[in-house]
Each structure stands twice: as structure tokens, then as C-alpha cells.
Amino acid sequence: MTKRDQTEGSGEFDRLILNDRGGGIRMSVHVKPRSSRSAILGVRDGSLEVALTSPPADGAANGELCRLLAGALGVRQTGVEIATGASSRQKLIDVAGVTAADARSRLVGAKR
Fold first, then answer.
1. Which of 86, 71, 100 is nearest to 29 (CA)?
2. How distant is the alpha carbon of residue 48 from its chain centre?
3. Which residues pair with 81 in a beta bridge?
4. Scanning 13, 29, 41, 110, which has its CA 20 to 30 A from the CA of 5?
5. What is the distance, to the nearest Å, from the Cα of residue 2 to the centroid of all Cα atoms in its chain?
6. Domains in the chain: how many in total?
7. 66-111 pLDDT, tens digit each
8. Among the listed residues 75, 79, 83, 76, the one whose alpha carbon sits nearest the alpha carbon of residue 29
């Protein structure tokens, strides 16, 4: 991804609502399970939109979501926690060890 592509995509991520929470952030995530590939798709109504290949059964999609977000944000997988919505497509995610500004710039680079 070129610097120009990152700059153009960052406008979309300016609409992402990120709340600072004592050493980390909280954000809303909309999940699309059973997709053809796992990827960060962009922002929809203030929430991060994520596609996952796993089905929403036995926590498989939740585990995949935590791994994907940890990799994209450059934090440990144990630092990503589902605060609410474990059985829903709409979730609130807590991420430790990252600021809102860092998270936004890292997500721009991780979008596919």
C-alpha cells in the first residue's frame, strides 16, 4: 500500500469511534462470519467492519476475531477482549496497550 493509499483510506477510519480506557481502547466491531477471507473491511456506522472465515459456532469466530485484531493492532492476543456481544455480530472490544491514534493508523495499514 502506498502512502497516498493510506492517506485516502484514513478518512474512512476517522469515522471509527474509539474510546480511550486506561491504557487501551474500546471500539465497536461488526463481524461478518463465514466470509471467503478474513480481513478488516473498513468502517460502517462508527464500527469497524471485519470479515471472518470461521462460522459463529463454539467461539471459533470470536477467537479468530481476537487473533485478527491483535495482529492488525500490534498487540498480544491476550490484550484483545470481547467486552459485550460474544454471541452477536455487533461487539464491543477492549484492546490493551494501544492508544486511539495508534489504533487508527494501524487499522488503516491493515485494511484489505
1. 86
2. 5
3. 94
4. 29
5. 21
6. 1
7. 999 999 999 999 999 999 999 999 999 999 999 999 999 999 989 8
8. 83
pLDDT recorded at residue 2: 40
Which positions ≥6 away from 60 have C-beta within 8 Å? 54
pTM of the model: 0.88
What CATH number is associated with residue 101? Answer: 3.30.1200.10
Say how many C-beta atoms besides its own lie within 10 A of residue 21's C-beta. 14
Helix ranges restricted to H, 1-112: 3-13, 60-73, 100-110
Q: Which three cell numbers stand for residue 87?
A: 454471541
Domain extent, residue 14, equals: 3-110
Q: Are 31 and 52 in contact (CB under 8 A)?
A: yes
With 0-12 CB in 10 A as exposed, 13-18 as middle and 19+ as buried, what is 95?
buried
Alpha helices, H only, 26-112: 60-73, 100-110
Nearest Cα residue to 23 out of 77, 102, 110: 102
Q: Would you tell me how many other CB atoms lie within 10 Å of the CB of residue 29?
A: 20
69 residue type, one letter: L
